[in-house]
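Encode chain A's predicted structure.
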Amino acid sequence: MNWKVVLAVLTGNVVFMASSYTMLIPFLPMYLTHELGVSPEHVNLWSGAVFSASFIVSAIMAPIWGRLADTRGKRLMAIRASLLLSVSYFLGGIVSSPAELVGMRIFQGFAAGLWPMDLAIMTMYAPPDKLGICLGIMQSAMTAGGVIGPLLGGVLAEAFGMRASFFVASAALMLNCVVFIFVIKEPPKPVRSSSNDDKKTAPGAFSLLKVPVLRTLLLASATMQMVILILQPIMTTYITALAGDLPNIIFVSGLIFSLGGFAGVVAAPAWGWFGQHKGYLRAALTAIPLAGVGLVVQGSVSDLHIYAAMQFVCGLFFCGVHPSLNALLAKNTDASVKGSIFGLMFAAQQIGSILGPVLGGTVATFLGMKYVFYAAALVLLALTIFLRARKKIIE
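Encoded structure for chain A:
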């Protein structure tokens, strides 16, 4: 297949996948109270269980699915993930108790793995000189889905009830499944290289986690995901505190929250180009500290307009990190184990997704909400120093 066709199809796939997820996740606490009868005093407990159930299971299963992708086919694993995720969303729309919703999220964690398969397939089709821009475009699509999802979910919930969002998400994932069956072809089998480049892993040579460069990049990916999600527990509350008695606070909070996503849609392809021409590690080492500076400013201002502007600015920098790390993973991995390495990447990010809200909530509880921004910036500073120290290993 032509790589441009693959990029176009997978970009649409990612938009459907991301928007299906984000049209539901922000509204799960409301779903628990309005549809499943959970009392206000218990909603936080059930929300925590619903959120974390999927992350834990998918972190365990992602490396397994990745290994099967290398042995059975990446397209087959993408079909599997699309189909099972479609079923999971349908089940979410018919549950009648919070326990059943937790069970649905556990099954969803078992089904997950579409994003790493999209990445693995794209890295095998993309020409080496186009890898950065391809991953940048896919990251932009992921971010665009993250912006579209909550807006669409809110409209559907208002017009048809919250269960309708689950059924629409199920239909979108089923469409993805059909596209993989009839349009996308399995990437060609890799030609075994005779190169003695010891930075690239050979199939079955040893555990991928024992390779220093891969271990470094996976740790960086988990850390970045932790920082991205560290603000989730306090974002709406913090915006409300800055806004005061502003009317339509829910709409304003959603709009400000989305500004980072809008910035990511614009900037992610540019970061891909930057990495392609200046080096992916350099791109990451530029974006990470700049994002940290933006977070410090966000935590220091008391004006809502400046905070909103910095939300957009931070989005410009955050979107440059994951595509750069993914490109470095692809460059340092043999083609025959790309499914495994992107499965491990997804597992690392899921671990970061668990740790981020926990750390953010803890810091906000004991030190105050603004210190969550400073803690996140401190983590980014430490990550920058760590990656600079490992520069020779990565490059």
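The chain has 17 helices and no strands.
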